Amino acid sequence: MRLQSAGIIFAVGMTLYACPVYAAHPASVGSAAELVSSVTGQDRRAEDLQTESIKEVVSASIGSAALLESEKTAEEYKAAAMEAEGALWGYTNLGISNVNDNLNIRKSPSEDSRMVGKLPKNAACELISEEGEWTYIRSGKVEGYVKSEYLLSGWNAKKRALEEVSTVAVVDTSTLKVREQPNTECEVVTLVPKGEELEVVDVSDGWVKIMIDDEENYVSADYVKLEEKLASAITMTELLYGQGVSDIRVDLCQFAKQYVGNPYVWGGTSLTRGADCSGFVLSVYKNFGISLPRTSSSQANAGTKISMSQAKPGDLIFYAKGGRINHVAIYIGNGQVVHASSPRTGIKISNYNYRTPAKVVRILPND
User: Fold this and answer.
1) What is the pTM of this model?
2) CA distance 70 to 92
3) How far from each other are the two terminal CA atoms of the chain, in whole angstroms?
4) Within the chain, what is the greatest distance between any pair of CA atoms?
5) Considering the domain 94-164 in this protein, what is its CATH number?
6) Which pLDDT does position 84 carry in this prediction?
């Protein structure tokens, strides 16, 4: 009986500590302290939780009343605890990158090994195994090795994740209308395809306020699913170029890709310290000796208009709101663009039709 009670105690602690309800409310570490206190009958300050290991927290004894009220067996509690532990944003052994910019992911556990991806600041990964100073991880579509010293694990990883987790609206209809105001009478700003993830600002009265690049808009809550997400790795898979693509196009796209994960700064033109959408394009092209106007609307008139079917890597894709150009991205082939999107996401890679393209322009010479 004693062993069984101990098993129940441990499983209850794990279930309550790791349950998705707690993960879904990243208000503060204090809420975790209140949760543990309510079960164990012992006070836990926030600073205590920051230093105690998970085992130390969940192994605290609980009151006899909690045991008497329990209707589950020890095995049922253990099973529930294992299921809850694996439900933390989809990770069973959560790791978080603890860097100022990006953590390089390599093919082999060596600084000389080929880079296969980047893990942005505070992005999540599954910790799989350790080899000396290296840890093998999986994040998004990327698997590889990172230096262990730049990873958080255990309670520290979960604490950081609670601070960084964000809500996204996943498009659940073939074509989602994005509106300027929360009503069906106002203008449709753009269309977004199924499966795209939109940054959520607020939810109210059947409408979801979202960010499209650096501007707030609205979508109907009936056509999206709200999910909590942690940032994940960025793949460095080679771009798929067809025959006849010039070296300058390949070089320009590869040059632009290396700044993925760097910050978005409105009015900025620095590829490392921060740029907005047109500042990013201006600086990338400047590196290849091509001068462009400063704003996206001016850049849209700087080259030759082409159709999307004619687009090649290095061409520019423009997006509009109310008929006015307000965003620009560089087409990198394979149906994707690289662009400085928003303060939250920074410079990123997206599908070219993550919103409806308004214009495609060729600045580079024809091949």
Assistant:
1) 0.68
2) 26
3) 79
4) 80
5) 2.30.30.40
6) 46
